[in-house]
Amino acid sequence: MIPITKPFLPPQEDYKKYLSGIWKRQWLTNMGPLASELEMKLKDHLHVKHLLFVTNGTIALQMAIKALDLKSEIITTPFSFVATTSSIVWEGCKPVFVDIDKESLNIDPTKIEAAITDETSAILATHVYGNPCDVLAIEKIAKKHNLKVIYDGAHAFGVEVYGKSVFEYGDISTCSLHATKLYHSIEGGLIVTKDPALLKRLAYIRNFGFSGTESFAELGINGKNSEYHAAMGLANIPHIEAVHNKRRELTELYNLKLKGLKVKTPSWHNDGTKNYAYYPLVFESEELMLECMKRLAASEIFTRRYFYPSLANTLPYLDPQNFEITDDIAKRVLCLPLYFDLTVEEVELISRLLLRIQNN
Ligand SMILES: Cc1ncc(COP(=O)(O)O)c(C=O)c1O
């Protein structure tokens, strides 16, 4: 069986080393020493000024919306994971969808201005598959209309654009460290901001709003993460490069082996680095994509329609809306298995089967 993904696990001994410290200190959560060490190491690794380690990528988005005091309408993409939209609704705001660019599959900045109203407070865009959004165009629009910008960088760990971390763009960037992500802490998330005042507010918000043991500075939530999760994050840090290299090799092999397949892949930002988080293919038709998905599954090879369906016409708490490009791409896109333990032989097998299905 070949699953769509398998979490990377460091050698058990490495994780156990951290566990013995937890037992000794009996400090299990509430921003313990491992959580702080993880924050410091990730700040170094990602070359960002400030970051917070939080419970998950969804809480990170909700905290970002709260900390920026966003109200009313937030412009966002319908081609993302449900958490991008649900966080907006959860925080009492209204998602206003803007269609994606058909090449990058990220929000189309040329369509943003038409969606801005007096009620618009921010743009929340996703770096889909880790591919950086057109951050300069979005920054220009945000400045002109006095809007805040949040980037959902759940997929974008380690990506740089114009020579710096993609997380350094916008007012706040978030990331997911969920087990299925290329770098993970089992469950976990990151919030990145360049603004120290915002960082301070976010730190209060993460801890119920406490500013001291008996005082409160903010309306807060429990966004903390545990020492066990931090330990997994720390144990995974020494393997980031090996994971990256293996994913790059497998991606390049897919590219080579799938040369005859009539599909498109998202066009990557010209000045962005890649993290090989996913291997998405856009087929010529939904019919062919479904046939490939079905026949691969018959050989116990599991793929995923990611993202399908469009967030704009599926969620029971929103009025359905159609978007030409999102609806079309969401129907035809399929992600192939990609993970550290995937073998060259398995990539060759998947590629051979896909070509056979197409050519039959
Ligand atoms: C684009 C996007 N945003 C947000 C999230 C939510 O992250 P988490 O699962 O850590 O809550 C995900 C998770 O897969 C995601 O893909």
UniProtKB/TrEMBL annotation:
UniProt modified residues of type N6-(pyridoxal phosphate)lysine: 181
Single GO molecular function: transaminase activity
This protein's UniProt keywords: Pyridoxal phosphate
Pfam families: DegT_DnrJ_EryC1 (PF01041)
Biological processes per GO annotation: polysaccharide biosynthetic process
Catalytic site positions: 181 (proton acceptor)
Keyword flag RNA-binding: no
Top-level lineage group: Bacteria
InterPro entries: DegT/StrS_aminotransferase, PyrdxlP-dep_Trfase, PyrdxlP-dep_Trfase_major
Assigned protein family: Belongs to the DegT/DnrJ/EryC1 family.
PANTHER family, alphabetized: PROTEIN RV3402C (PTHR30244:SF9), TRANSAMINASE (PTHR30244)
Descriptive protein name: dTDP-4-amino-4,6-dideoxygalactose transaminase
